[in-house]
Amino acid sequence: MAGSAFRESFRPWVWAAFAVATAAAIVLCVSLGSVRVPFVDATREVWLALTGRPAGDAKVWSIVVSVRFPRVLVAGLMGAALSVCGCAMQGLLKNPLADGTTLGVSSGAGLGAIVAIVFGVQVPGLPLAGTTIMAAAFAFLSLLVILTLAYRLDRSLSSNTIILLGVIYSMFVASISSILVTFAGDKARTILFWTMGSLASTNYGNAALLAVALLAFGGVLLTKRRELNAFAVGEDNALHIGVDVKRTKLVVLICVSALTGICVSVGGTIGFVGLVTPHMVRFLVGPNHLRLMPAVIFGGAIFLMLCDLAARTLLSPRELPIGVVTSLIGAILFVNIFTAARRKGK
Amino acid sequence: MTMLEARDVTVRYGDLTLVDGVSFTVAEGEWVMVCGPNGAGKSTLVNAIAQGAPYTGDVLFEGEPLRRMKPPQVARRIGVLAQSNAALYAFTVAEVVRLGRYAHREGFFARGGGGRGGRDDGCDGGSGRNPAGRDDELVREAIERTGLAPFAQQSVLTLSGGELQRAFLAQVFAQDPRMLILDEPTNHLDLVYQKRTFELVREWLRRPGKAVLSVTHDLSLARAYGSRVLLMDRARIVSAGAPSEALSPANLEAVYGMDVHAWMRDLLEKW
Amino acid sequence: MKHKSPLAAAALVLAVLLAMLTLSACGSGTDADADTTAPAGGIALVDQTGRDVILAAPATKTVALAASDAEILYALGAGGTVVGRGEYCDWPSEVLDVPAVSSGAETNIEQIIALEPELVFMNTMAQTPEQVEQLEAAGIAVYSSDAKTIEETYSSIRDFGTLTGKEAEAEGIIETMKATFDAATADKVDGGTIYFEVSPLEWGLWAAGSGTFMNEAAELVGLTNVFADLEGYAEVSEEQVIERNPDYILTITMYYGEGLQPVEELLQRPGWETVAAIQNQAIIELPNNELSRPGPRLAEGVQALSDFVHGR
Fold first, then answer.
1. Interface predicted TM-score (ipTM)
2. Whole domain around residue B9: which residue ranges?
3. B180 and B264 together in one domain
4. Which of A66, A135, B33, C254 is exposed most, by the fewest CB atoms within 10 A?
C-alpha cells in the first residue's frame, strides 16, 4: 500500500480542472443568451469592463456587461452557496434528502419577504432593501426559534429532532404565508413571483453580497470538513473519535442558515440545487468531504449557471422560471446518478 | 496502576434510574468485563463513561475528571467500538479508519471544535508533535493488523457486517487510545468474527499502558478473556472480582434466576 | 407554493397544462346565436362560452366576480343591482362598499347563494364549469364572459345591458368607445415600437404579447408591440428588451410602497441606457388596469396612450 493511498485532498491538476471547467461555464454562459451576440464581441466587452475601460459597442455592453455577466455571476455564486449548504447538511444529518432548506430557514426567509410585501415594510435610507432585509432577518429568527425549540426538546440536538422540527416549522410558516397571501389582494402576484425564485434583475451588488457571504460562511463550513466526514459516517462515531458534536452542529447550522437566508433574499426560493449537486459531485469524487466540499462549490456554480442558461435560452425570447429548470434537469440527473451509483455499488 | 475510576455514577432518564450509584476501577493491563442480563444498565454505564449520556457522580481518568475534558482530549484517552455501525455514504475503508486520527490533529484548520487543550496529556503515543506521516503509519498499521489491507480502497457499502465492524475496530486502533471500550461489538457477528475481534483486542492489550472495558452478555467470553468481571443487575453492580468469583453459581443464580453453570455444562456436553 | 421538490415542479407543469386545456375547451363555440326560448316577457341569450342564459325579467340582484364585470355594470348604471363582488373588483370606488366574495379557485358557492342573486357574472379565465353547474343547480343564472378582443368586449357589454335592462346605455357606451378608438386610429402615428411591461423586473420580466388588449391598443395608435411574436403574457429576457430597443415603454406595474416608483426604477436599470424609450424618457404608466380588463375603460387606456405618443 503506497502512501498516496491515504491522500485525501485533491492533486493540483484536479483543482486546475475545476477552475478550467468553471471558467469555461462562465464563458459559455456569458457568450450565449437570449440575444445572439458574437463571441468575439461579447468577450471584448467583458474584457474592456474588467480592465476598467469604456464600452466598445454600447448595445453589446448593455446586454453582456450590464445584464448578462452579473446574472451569470449571481447564478454561479448562488449555485455554489446553495450546494455547499446542501452538502454540509447531508453530511451533518447523515441524510441524503437534507439541504439548506431542511431547517425551515428558507421558508422563514420567504415569510419575511411576504410580510415586507404585504405590510409595505421599508428600510429608511435603503430603497428596494425592505424585502431583502426582512428575508434575511426572518431567516435568522427562524434559526433562533428552531434551535431554541430543539434544545428544549432534546439537549443533544439529535439529527432526527432537527429534521422533524424543520419540517414542522416549514409547514407552519407556509400556512402563515398562505394566510397573508389571502389578505394580500393585488400583491398576491408579487408574492408568487417571490416564492418562485428568479435571477432576473440581479446585479453586481447582489454578486458582491453573495461573494462575501460565501467567503465568510462557506469558508467556515470548509474548516468543518473532517467533522462532516465523521458525522456522515455516524454521529455516535463522531462523538467517539473526539468531535465536539454539539459545537460542530451549531456552527454548521448557523452558517448554513445564514448562507441560505442570504440566497433566498437575493433570488427567492430556488429549489433542488442544494439537494442535487452534492449527489452529482459525490458520484464523481466520492463522499470524503475534504474533496467533496470544495468540489461541490465548483459543481454547484456550474450547475446553476447552466440551468440559468437553459432558462434564458431554451424558449427565447421567453424566459423559463429558474426553479422549474433546476427541478426538471435536477430530477432527471438525480435519477440517472442514483441508478448508476446503485449499479456501481457506490 | 488505576487508569479509570468511576465514583457513584448514576444515570437517570426521566423517572427511571438506569445506573444507580455505580463505582469501580480499571487498572492498566486489565480487561474488565461488565456482564448482566438485558436491561441491567451495562450499555448505559459505558455510554456515560464514553460521554454519550449525562450522568451524576465522577469518572476520573488517571485522577482527572473526564467531564472537564474537551472531546478530543477524551478521545485520545478512550476509544469506543460501538455495538453496530451503519454506513450510508461510500467512504473507503481507509477513510473510515483515518477518521480515528481526528483527535490527534494539530493546527487551526485541522483541529475540530474544541481541541484547544494542546498536547497536555501525553496521550498521543509518545511523539510530541504529530506529523501527517505518523497518521498514515498508524492508519496503515491498523488496517494491516485487522486484515483489511485488501479492502482498504473499497467502499464500506460493499462490506459484510463483520468486515464493516472490523473497519471500525481498525479505526479505534488508529485512534490509539489508552483505554478501549467495547459495547457488545460482536453481538450480531458469527463466531469467526467474534473470535478474531477478541483476539485482536487481546493482542492490543499486551502493549504497555492499555486497558479494556467491555460490555458483554456472553458469560463464556467474559470468563475466557476478562481479567475482572463486574456483574450488574437492575442498575447496580451486584458482584465484582476475578471472573470465577464474580460469576460464581450463587451470584449468577441471584441475577439470572437459573443455574447458569449447569446450563453451560449441559451445552458443552452436546459437543 | 415553493418549488423545491420535483413533485412540486411536476405539479406546477401539470396544473399549467390542465389550465390550458380547460381554457381551450371553454373557448370553443362562442357566438352561437342559438334558438333560446325565453319565457314570455323574459330575456334569453347565449353567453360567450355558448351557454344559454335565461331570465324571467331584467336582473335586479347580481353578483360580479371579475373586476371587468363590475366595471361594465357600473358603467351601465346597473351598479345598484350588484349585491356581491369578487374580491379583486376595485373600480369604480363605489364597488368597494359592496360585500366581497372569494373568486377564482377559492370561489365559495355558498357565500354567493347566501346573497340571493338572480344572476352571477363571471369570467371563464378564473372560474370553472363545476362552479357554473353548482350555481345553476341553486337556481341562479350565470353569464360567463370570455372577451379577449375589443370586439368581444362590445358584445359582452351589449349582453350585460340586455340582462340588466340597460340596452340603450350599453349601445351608448359602445358608441363612445368606438368614437375614441376611431379618433385614435385617425390620429395614427407613423411607425414606432412599444414595449408593455406587466410585472417589475425584480420578479422576472413579464411582457404583453399579441392577443392582449395592450397589443390591440398599440395597433390602434399605430405602434408595433416589440413582443407581438409572443402569444398572451410571457416572461421575457431583459436582453430581449434591450435588443428590440422599443421607442416607448408602457408599464402597468403597481407601486407597492417600496423603493423607487416604477418609472424611476425603469430609468435606472443597468444596461437599459441604450434603449430609445429610456433615453427619451418615453415611458407611460397606466397602473389602474385600463388596458388589461375587458371593460369600458379600455377607451381611457387607448386615449391615454394616444395622447402620450402625440405628446399631449
1. 0.87
2. 2-87+176-269
3. yes
4. C254
